[in-house]
């Protein structure tokens, strides 16, 4: 029993790698920018290249795992992640800012490749190796691990940067080594079997575009707004301790709301639609609050907290909608693409917001437009579809 529990913790370490790679380094960006004399765009690139590389590798790793086996892919990608951490750590041994910046940038790309490859495999392993109640418990454990990691990582990053920002890469290296050792010791025979769904074409997902497109849109917009506003918050607050606290607060709200959402009973299509509308309404409120960010950073913090609450609703709801209303044979592919799009939002948010920061009053209204368009996509795609599902549900009774 204890071996099984330790194995579950090992699987959980794979999924938290990507979360740590973002949350740990957000509070460190202002210090890195100051020490290396970087622009805001150059600084945001250190966050974005990690997420972009990870987003590219997420669907690719799913295919590689079907060909070579889960264990080989996980160990290989964690080795790449370890090399990326070592490379970034070497930036502390040079006094040339340009060399240090390029060293960090190359290391962050390698970290993104390794972390992105490992990120979806934890959930895939959970779905393949466990069934029924055990599977649901493991999914809950993975969400708890991810949620706690999101909230704690910025605080840890703030504590480390108080001594030296280079320690962040050393700490990430330690986490990567722990995950690598877990993969080698805990996965001797896991996932050698090929996925039964590897031969399915993308045409199956296109048939369910009314579910697929809104899910991808919501996933991108939520993560784009959340991590873009977190970058702005980190840039506005000078005190490292306060920076970690204010970055962790929206993520903690996300964790609490997601936990409360997970404790609710299975939702019908009507309840799911109402939940999505409530979440999108919160995003609109957050976008309106962000318009007043030029008056003081507390408006930005408040809007980020509201986005965190909306994310706690929309992220699990969009995942459950795909799992509930798509055929089982398409779920793995759909969740893989959903993870990819979410990380694209994480990657593009800091880059775009770093550009908008220079003329906040002129660009912030794009947030309202983006959120409004996303709401329209949801309502247009799901209008007739929900009526059809509700009719089918009523016939079952």
What does this structure look like?
With 397 residues, the protein is mainly alpha-helical. It folds into 2 domains: 188 residues, Growth Hormone, Chain: A (Up-down Bundle), CATH 1.20.1250.20; 198 residues, Growth Hormone, Chain: A, CATH 1.20.1250. Helices cover 84% and strands 0% of the residues. The protein contains 15 helices and no strands. The longest helix is centred in the first third of the chain and has 33 residues. The C terminus is likely disordered. Its main location: membrane.
Summarize the structure.
This protein has 2 domains: 8-195, MFS general substrate transporter like domains (Growth Hormone, Chain: A, Up-down Bundle); 200-397, MFS general substrate transporter like domains (Growth Hormone, Chain: A, Up-down Bundle), CATH 1.20.1250. The protein is built from 15 helices and no strands.
List the total number of helices: 15
CATH homologous superfamily identity of the largest domain: MFS general substrate transporter like domains
Order of helix and strand elements from N to C terminus: HHHHHHHHHHHHHHH
Tell me the overall shape: globular
* Class of secondary structure makeup: mainly alpha
CATH topology tier name of the largest domain: Growth Hormone, Chain: A
Largest sheet: none
Total individual domains: 2
Poorly predicted segments: 190-201, 391-397
* Mean pLDDT over the full residue set: 76
- Please state roughly what percent of the residues sit in beta strands, choosing from under 5%, 5-15%, 15-25%, 25-35%, 35-45% or over 45%: under 5%
Helix fraction bin: over 70%
Gyration radius from CA atoms, angstroms: 21 Å
Name the quaternary structure.
single chain
CATH C-level category of the largest domain: Mainly Alpha
Through-space gap between termini: 41 Å
* Strand element count: 0
Q: What is the CATH architecture term of the largest domain?
A: Up-down Bundle
Transmembrane segments: 12-32, 44-61, 73-93, 99-126, 169-187, 208-232, 244-262, 274-295, 301-323, 335-357, 363-382
Subcellular location: Cell membrane
Membrane topology: Multi-pass membrane protein
Organism: Alkalicoccobacillus murimartini
């Amino acid at each position: 029993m204890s071996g099984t529990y330790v194995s579950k913790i090992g699987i959980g370490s794979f999924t938290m790698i990507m979360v740590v790679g973002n949350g740990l380094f957000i509070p460190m960006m202002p210090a890195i920018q100051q020490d290396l004399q970087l622009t805001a765009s150059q600084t945001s690139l250190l966050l974005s290249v990690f997420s972009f590389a990870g987003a590219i590798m997420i669907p690719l790793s799913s295919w590689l795992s079907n060909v070579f086996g889960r264990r080989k892919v996980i160990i290989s990608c964690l080795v790449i992640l370890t090399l990326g951490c070592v490379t970034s750590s070497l930036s502390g041994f040079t006094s040339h800012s340009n060399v240090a910046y390029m060293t960090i940038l190359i290391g962050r790309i390698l970290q993104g490749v390794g972390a992105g490859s490992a990120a979806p495999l934890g959930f895939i392993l959970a779905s393949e190796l466990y069934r029924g109640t055990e599977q649901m418990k493991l999914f809950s454990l993975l969400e708890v691990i991810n949620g706690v990691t999101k909230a704690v990582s910025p605080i840890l990053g703030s504590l480390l940067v108080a001594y030296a920002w280079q320690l962040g890469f050393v700490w990430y290296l330690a986490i990567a080594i722990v995950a690598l050792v877990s993969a080698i010791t805990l996965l001797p025979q896991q996932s050698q079997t090929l996925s039964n769904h590897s031969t399915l074409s993308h045409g199956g997902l296109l048939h369910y575009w009314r579910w697929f497109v809104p899910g991808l849109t919501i996933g991108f917009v939520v993560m784009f707004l959340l991590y873009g506003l977190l970058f702005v918050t980190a840039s506005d607050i000078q005190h490292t301790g306060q920076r970690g606290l204010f970055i962790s607060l929206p993520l903690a709200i996300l964790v609490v709301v997601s936990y409360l959402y997970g404790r609710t009973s299975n939702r019908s299509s009507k309840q799911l639609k109402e939940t999505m509308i409530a979440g999108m309404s919160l995003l609109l409120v957050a976008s309106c609050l962000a318009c007043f960010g030029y008056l003081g950073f507390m408006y930005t913090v408040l809007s980020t907290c509201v986005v965190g609450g909306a994310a706690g609703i929309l992220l699990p709801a969009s995942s459950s909608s795909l799992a509930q209303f798509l055929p089982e044979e398409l779920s793995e592919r759909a969740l893989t693409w959903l993870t990819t799009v979410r990380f694209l939002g994480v990657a593009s948010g800091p880059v775009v917001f770093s550009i908008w920061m220079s003329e906040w009053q002129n660009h912030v209204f794009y947030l309202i437009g983006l959120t409004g368009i996303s709401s329209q996509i949801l309502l247009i795609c799901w209008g007739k579809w929900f009526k059809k599902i509700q009719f089918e549900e009523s016939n079952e009774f």
